[in-house]
Design brief:
The complex is a heterodimer of chains A (91) and B (373).
Chain A (H helix, E strand, L loop, with lengths): L9 E2 L4 E5 L4 E6 L2 E3 L3 H9 L6 H11 L4 H17 L3 E2 L1
Antiparallel strand pairs in A: 1-5, 2-3, 3-4
Helix pairs in contact in A: 2-3
Chain B lengths: L9 E5 L26 H14 L3 E5 L9 H10 L3 E6 L6 H10 L3 E6 L4 H8 L4 H14 L4 E7 L7 H10 L4 E6 L4 H5 L1 H4 L3 H18 L4 E5 L19 E4 L5 E2 L20 H7 L1 H4 L17 H4 L4 H8 L16 H8 L27
The chains are: A alpha+beta (91), B alpha/beta (373).
Chain lengths: 91, 373
Amino acid sequence: MSLPETTVPGLRRGVKFRFDAVRASWVVLAPERLFVPDEPAVEVLKLIDGARSLGAIADDLAARFAAPRAVILADVAAMLTDLADKGAIAL
Amino acid sequence: MTGLFPPPMGLIVELTHRCPLQCPYCSNPLELERPASELDTSAWMRVFDQAAELGVLQLHFTGGEPTARRDLPDLVRHASARGLYTNIITSGVLLDEPLMAALMAAGIDHIQLSLQDIEPENADRIGGYRGAHAKKLAAAQRIRDAGLPLTLNFVVHRQNIQNVARMIDIAEKLGAERSEIAHVQYYGWGLKNRAALLPSRAELDATTATVEAARARLKGRMVIDYVVPDYYASRPKSCMGGWAQRFINISPSGKAMPCHAAETLPGFTFPSVRDTPLAAIWQSDPAFLRFRGTDWMPEPCASCERREIDWGGCRCQAFALTGDAGRTDPACALAPDHAVMAEAVAERGIAPPPFIYRRINAGSERAPVEAVV
């Protein structure tokens, strides 16, 4: 299943993404679960604001990281689907 | 490296053992703590400060019934201001409009609401509180109207297991983001009522199939957490994510334990948050160190490739069923004591015996007409 580029992901109700100073890492806090996202996921989560589309997130990352946009787009789409399945974001 | 153990993820606080309901599978100890022994508001706030400094991320308010504490909104506000993710685990029967508004103003992040069944009469009979089910449905609506995420928790057993498909339907209808279909865990009250609660293998298998189908159908819309009973398992659950690995549980009077049932274990003296800082408890209290990690493990755990997946299962279950907290959890098919699980299943009988309700002086088998806080 591929997500359209126009998809606008947002954190789900009750989900918080914040930096934890004690662990020196970003954490996703959700109803009775939490994740410590890996570095690529952190970069994506920082760009999720309920307004930016999947396409815009891929544009942003393609401008900053040395990888073809198409590759980044596919990676981000897979990551978003995974986060949605975990209940962290809504698509 | 400082040699410090990584900080706990969650703090579970049993604010009180008072509860209007009397569920026969309650996770509270058989010996309930009295209201007079409860920590006061400022003592709890001090604990939350220490928890935030230690690295706790989520704070779970439970009981008993946490909303029976009048200071709950103040406690939520304090914890929230310290950056803790706040969660209330409630029966919902006391969650009226003013309390909901106060909790929202305090910054509550999430509420988990329990339902005993979807058939009102059976639900009220199980909880031992007439009219509870209707109040719970009103509470669910209130939680959604306030804009909070909602988790519905259903504890399932042989006296409501036939309704699991309808439980999931109602969770979907009420707009829950998350639901828990949690088989009773057999400790304390649940163990006392085991024959009245334990489903058959066929009932369990049918339920598992129902949950798996619903998960596929609701993927991306509602998360369903499913907890199975140990009695039909071949591998033990990773109880609490391992002894003193992820959580600290605090009793109403301030006793800190690696889990809510740990007090059933003999030979332990659990530290009190009244006189010991949380960080010291987590890093060096002997009760917390006793079963942390893998060094304590006997065979077959010690050489098992799953030793850091299930951490030897549950210490309280090992003690309850074998008399020795240091043995492999008998839920594991590799455990020398595994046969006790099948023996318990054989004891469940054709018809369930009456419930022994959770109350301060238990023994009565009749559901009360009315319960008081």
